[in-house]
Amino acid sequence: MRRLFGSVRSRATLGATLVVAIALIAAGTAVTLSLRSNLSGQASTQAERSARSVAADLAGGQSYDQVSLDDDDRPVQVVDQAGTLVAASEDLERISGTGVGAVRPQPPAAGVGDDDDDDKEGDDESLEPGEIGEETAFSEGSATIDGDTEDYRFAAVTVEVQNKGTLTVYAGAPLAAEQSAVRTALTVMLIGFPLLLAVVAVVTWRVTRRALRPVEGIRSEMAAITASEDLARRVPVPDTHDEVAGLARTTNETLAALEASVERQRRFVADASHELRSPIASLRTQLEVGAAHPELLDLAGAVEDTVRLQRLAADLLLLARLDAGERPADTPFDLGAVVREEAAGRAGVTVDAPAVEVTGSRGQLARVLANLLDNARRHAGEQVSVRVRRDGVWAVAEVADDGAGVPADQRERIFERFVRLDDARTRDDGGAGLGLAIARDVAVRHGGTLTVREAPEGGALFELRLPGAP
């Protein structure tokens, strides 16, 4: 049961059916009440018309036996002030709902009909002889006429009759039409509503199944991708323009990004292993030679390989922290001071670095500037220049050299990991190709940019832009 109603199709079908059921019940109740009210109003009108017709005859001076009380076989009672039944329908056998249960007329009570002031003071409505009261009282009850018992709507009208006093005329109109119409409506609802709900449930089930069919295709393909670990596969995109198609496209974009990330990590591991192999192999060879022939040990080369290995390990650790989403600090500091510190002691470097305050990780940005200076010094002919300035809300640091520059079609590629344009160089001179990649990653995580263009001296100009501190 839990599995059945745990599916989207089942919940959608159940929800749609419940909503339609509530709407049908509300509509059916409103229709039934409206139908009953209208038919009850019609019965009230008919009963009042009959009562006023009898009252008019009495007001006109007709005697009780001359008044027509048997039209349409409707129950009629005429009651005097004392509550005595003075006239009634001929075939009336039983009646309820009028307050007078008698069905056979009785002689008027003694004194009834005297037109003294005392009697008139007790009346709710002072009427002149021959006058019919304007107000009509209604009630419901039943009556048996000539053996047939039915429910009726009764109307009560008062009339003042000369020498008879105030009489009350009760006339009934049958409620059979109302009851029959209500029963018919209820029967139709009891039969039609379940059939309509069944249709709604079946249609919703089929429509939902058709709508969710692409989702099942996406799910099955994702399960297959997970099982095969083949990130090159893609989920099917339905030929629609709805949310399911959007989900499929977003899923494929996520798979493409994941595939690129995994491929990038794969290349990173392979390149890192390759880069580490050379200094480790060289260091091992030198140590083995030194162990066998101490006089041949190249101590300076071993130290150089160790330092290079240490730097490469530090670069790899920093990249790993950046890839893990390490957030930079939010500490304000002077970018110009950092530039001056990193440029100090470097031959051939000119510095123009006034105080410009930024926020972030001082250590990481110092690493960026050191990498840019190392790269510029490696490719410069004679001179490297560093300039710090404020450009609106940005703090800008520019590192330029007078070397050969970077070809326009390679200016983005040099920021990729383990990429070097000087493949003919030795590894000792050319580096591992991680410095610029680290520099751009750090710049981006500080909300800035790192780009390269041609320097006025003809070489490369690297521009680091960072949000300035308020």
List keywords for this structure.
alpha+beta, Heat Shock Protein 90, five-stranded mixed beta sheet, rod-shaped, 48% helix, six-stranded antiparallel beta sheet, single chain, Helix Hairpins
How would you characterize this protein structure?
The chain is an alpha+beta fold. It folds into 3 domains: 1-228, no CATH class; 244-323, Helix Hairpins; 331-467, Heat Shock Protein 90 (2-Layer Sandwich), CATH 3.30.565. It has 9 helices and 13 strands. The chain has helices at 8-59, 117-121, 176-228, 243-292, 299-323, 335-343, 362-379, 427-430, 435-445; strands spanning 76-79, 85-88, 92-96, 137-145, 148-161, 165-174, 331-334, 349-352, 357-360, 384-391, 394-401, 449-454, 460-467. The strands form 3 sheets. Strands 2-1-6-5-4-3 form a 6-stranded antiparallel sheet. Strand 4 and strand 5 (148-161) form a beta hairpin.
Ordered list of secondary-structure elements with their pairings:
Blueprint lengths: L7 H52 L16 E4 L5 E4 L3 E5 L20 H5 L15 E9 L2 E14 L3 E10 L1 H53 L14 H50 L6 H25 L7 E4 H9 L5 E4 L4 E4 L1 H18 L4 E8 L2 E8 L25 H4 L4 H11 L3 E6 L5 E8 L3
Parallel strand pairs: 8-10
Antiparallel strand pairs: 1-2, 1-6, 3-4, 4-5, 5-6, 7-9, 10-11, 11-13, 12-13
Helix pairs in contact: 1-3, 4-5, 5-9, 6-7, 7-9
Please tell me how large the radius of gyration is. 52 Å
Strand content: 15-25%
Mean pLDDT: 84
Number of domains: 3
Number of DSSP-assigned strands? 13
Strand order of the largest sheet: 2-1-6-5-4-3
| Shape estimate | rod-shaped
